């Protein structure tokens, strides 16, 4: 008899918990509805919040760029030391809508080049080793590729996209929170109804926190994958633009092949200076900032074949 009474008490507790969680979820949606009804004020809040997020992103981008310049020991390359390179950059700048960026050299740590829009007028950094590794035409193809990034403002778009994505993730969290509350309440209630109450009194709070954390994690994972996919697409687009402007896709293809061979495998794929993306595995390719070098080279070679109407060319 006593056992039956205890089971009945557990059922009552479970139903009460379900009612409490359901009420909390209902109140949450009532609050969201109230906020929606006051959307005139809400719009103002959203605009101010968005503006602040953009401002902070721009400041972070600006100071992050300055820090990166310091890290790679970037210095201006005087025209007197490389007049031919400056002349080629001048001609490219006239053909493209990127302005005339500063030309710098640095110690990136691997044969590489970078375009930075966070510097006034923009800047292109060449690793010192490139001048010993590439021909003049190959350096021009690489410069055109980096100018294409400046022309499309790729790095700025990535930064603002990440900030906007963060805001969107938190909006999703707010909208999903009532569902999370209901799901947690159902689980806790059925635990009691089945006669298996949690041993930890704070277990419901911990479970709710875990569920919200999962929503945030999934949101940021989706945001990261989307930005990485966009980063890979912009590399292909920059290659195409460089080939279009120079009229010599094979020079860029040869430059990429030489960089691929000279780049040491210790570079991590998460590095902002990472250029290769050639490691094995679908997951590695999915998380890479750049497409596989072989894919980029193949596309450039195919473009050269189409333009020349020639047989297939192999870049070794």
Automatic annotation (TrEMBL):
Record domain Peptidase M48: where: 81-303
Cofactor notes: Binds 1 zinc ion per subunit.
Essential cofactor(s): Zn(2+)
Keywords: Cell membrane, Hydrolase, Membrane, Metal-binding, Metalloprotease, Protease, Transmembrane, Transmembrane helix, Zinc
Enzyme Commission code: 3.4.24.-
Superkingdom in the source lineage: Archaea
Transmembrane regions listed in the UniProt entry: 40-61, 168-186, 212-229
Pfam families membership: Peptidase_M48
GO terms classed as biological process: proteolysis
Tagged with keyword DNA-binding: no
GO MF term (any one): metal ion binding
InterPro entries, per the entry: HtpX_protease, Peptidase_M48
Coiled-coil regions, chain positions: none
Family stated for the protein in its record: Belongs to the peptidase M48 family.
Name of the protein in question: M48 family metallopeptidase
Organism per entry: Halorussus aquaticus
């Amino acid at each position: 008899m006593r056992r039956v009474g205890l089971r009945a008490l557990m059922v009552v507790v479970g139903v009460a918990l379900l009612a409490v969680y359901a009420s909390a979820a209902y109140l949450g949606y009532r609050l969201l509805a109230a906020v929606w009804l006051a959307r005139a004020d809400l719009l103002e809040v959203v605009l101010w919040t968005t503006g602040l997020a953009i401002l902070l992103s721009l400041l972070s981008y600006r100071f992050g760029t300055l820090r990166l310049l310091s890290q790679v020991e970037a210095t201006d390359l005087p025209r007197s030391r490389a007049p031919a390179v400056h002349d080629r950059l001048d001609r490219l700048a006239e053909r493209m809508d990127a302005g005339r960026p500063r030309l710098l050299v640095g110690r990136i740590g691997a044969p590489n080049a970078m375009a930075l829009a966070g510097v006034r007028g923009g800047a292109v950094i060449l690793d010192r080793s490139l001048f010993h590794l590439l021909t003049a035409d190959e350096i021009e193809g690489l410069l055109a590729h980096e100018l294409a990034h400046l022309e499309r403002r790729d790095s700025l778009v990535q930064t603002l996209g990440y900030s906007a994505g963060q805001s969107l993730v938190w909006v999703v969290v707010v909208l999903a929170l009532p569902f999370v509350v209901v799901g947690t309440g159902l689980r806790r209630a059925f635990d009691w109804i089945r006669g298996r109450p949690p041993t930890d009194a704070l277990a419901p709070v911990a479970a709710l926190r875990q569920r919200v954390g999962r929503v945030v994690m999934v949101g940021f994972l989706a945001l990261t994958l989307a930005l990485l996919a966009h980063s890979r697409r912009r590399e292909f687009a920059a290659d195409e633009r460089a080939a279009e402007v120079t009229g010599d896709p094979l020079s860029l293809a040869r430059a990429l092949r030489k960089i691929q061979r000279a780049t040491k495998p210790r570079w991590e794929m998460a590095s902002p200076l990472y250029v290769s993306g050639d490691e094995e595995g679908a997951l590695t390719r999915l998380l890479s900032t750049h497409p596989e070098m072989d894919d980029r080279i193949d596309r450039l070679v195919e473009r050269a074949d189409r333009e020349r109407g020639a047989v297939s060319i192999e870049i070794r």
